[in-house]
Amino acid sequence: MTSENCKSKDFYANFGVNVYVHVLFLFIILSCLFMFVISKLTTQGANEAFVTLATQSIDEQFTKLNPEQQALARKALQGIDLNTLSEMFNHEEKTRKYNNEAIFESIKSNIFILVLFLILIVIFAKLVCYKLPIKHILLENVIIFAGIGLVEFMFFKYIILNFIPVEPSFLVKYLLDRVKSTLF
User: Fold this and answer.
1) Handedness of CA 88, 179, 64, 70 (dihedral sign)
2) In this structure, what DSSP letter does residue 79 have?
3) N or C, which end of the chain is more exposed by having fewer CB within 10 Å?
4) Where are the beta strands (DSSP E) in 8-107?
5) Which residues contact 72 (CB under 8 A, 6 or more apart)?
6) Residue 178 burial (CB < 10 Å; 0-12/13-18/19+)?
7) What are the residues whose beta carbons fall under 8 Å from the beta carbon of 172, sequence distance 6 or more?
8) pLDDT of 22-70, one tens digit each?
């Protein structure tokens, strides 16, 4: 059959494919945004937040001690090999590494399956001689998601990354409580 003899547009079929493409684009864009931007920015942001919290809190709390307490704290810490202790934690955590790799592989597999399914839908439509306005559907979704993606990226970069979820003193207080409960 020639394309002139194929069925005309069917609202429900076009709507269904449009919704599927919309969901597919959303999944791909959010996945790529997560894999290439958000995961890196959240790691960087969390690391910077912990460094800032620890530095500010420890320095602030240490300066609140009188000179005798400061000397006693220094003397108590001299018996601990802080370099060896630091080296013990100076490696990538295997659980974190394997978990993140599994998440990224799952995302890639899901994208592949969803794109493959879309290709099968388009092929099926051609085989049954159905005029599927795939170019229109793709263009419409690209335009929509370009705008949504930009808004989400800006929201994440300028709002979420500047949000401070933990009190600066929380980390030091928690560490001191753990030391007290473990040692005393």
Assistant:
1) negative
2) T
3) C
4) none
5) none
6) exposed
7) 53, 54, 57, 58, 61
8) 888 888 888 888 888 888 888 887 778 777 777 777 777 778 889 898 8
